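Worked example

This section walks through a single chain of length 289. The input is the sequence exactly as stored; nothing has been trimmed or padded.
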Amino acid sequence: MPARSIGTATISFGLVSIPTKLYTTNETSGDIHFNMLHEADGARLKQQYICTKCNEVVDREHTVKGYEHAKGQYVVLSAEELKALDAVATQTIALEEFVPASSLDPLYVEKSYYLGPDKGGERAYKLIRDAMLETGLVGVASYSARGKQYIVSLRPFNEGLIMHQLRYAAEVKPWTEVPLPDLPELKPAELGLAKQIIQQIASETWHPEKYKDEVQERMAELIQQKVEGQEITVAPEAPAGKVIDLMEALKASLGMSKTDDRKPALAAESKTAAAAEAAPKKKTASKKK
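Given that input, the structure is written out below as tokens.
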């Protein structure tokens, strides 16, 4: 079934205007939602607005929207004024620069939308898509919609284009705010084993279809049991394991036995131990003479 457009936007590329349609990238999920019910009779509850001043219940038709410009002080906006605020949105994706795709950290990606060509924009749509593909660059643009200006990136995707809504720099928490103790020096042997574990489960490409929400499936099964009149019991928690020895944990991850005397040839072997092993051999050789 063809996707349904959720809106329109015009890509501004120099003096070229490219009409497009926006499509959500999200597939309707089967998330499990719970409703609040009255314990006494099992009826569903509904939310109400209660005035904090007179403590009375207010119907939705008697509500207005306001902006808090100072603590406890609001300016009320009419429906017409709210529309005027939304009118600032130009629905234009104004390309401002082109940058290497690798320079856009995924940390800044907030949402993604597919972009398809609108009527009359097919040729220009393919032109901007192919030009970015051949140059290896992606577009960065400003985009005004829903009363807010966004920063977005535009890049080739399959046979078309995809738009990523990005966070502003001020919306990203600096890494320096993360408390980080002094990290210890790693032994070459530890790093070598960790790299072996990574190589064991490495793949040439990512296949998202092989990942499933097993927790969601398990919840659905348990709820069905409850619907059928069965009781839901809590599964015992798995004992929390503690990594006492990092090397032993790494070896166990590679399928090595703790009692196995064979050690991998790693750069962490002590030169002193090697010299001590060689010393008795020299004495034996001198006795034979």
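What to look for: The radius of gyration is 31 Å.
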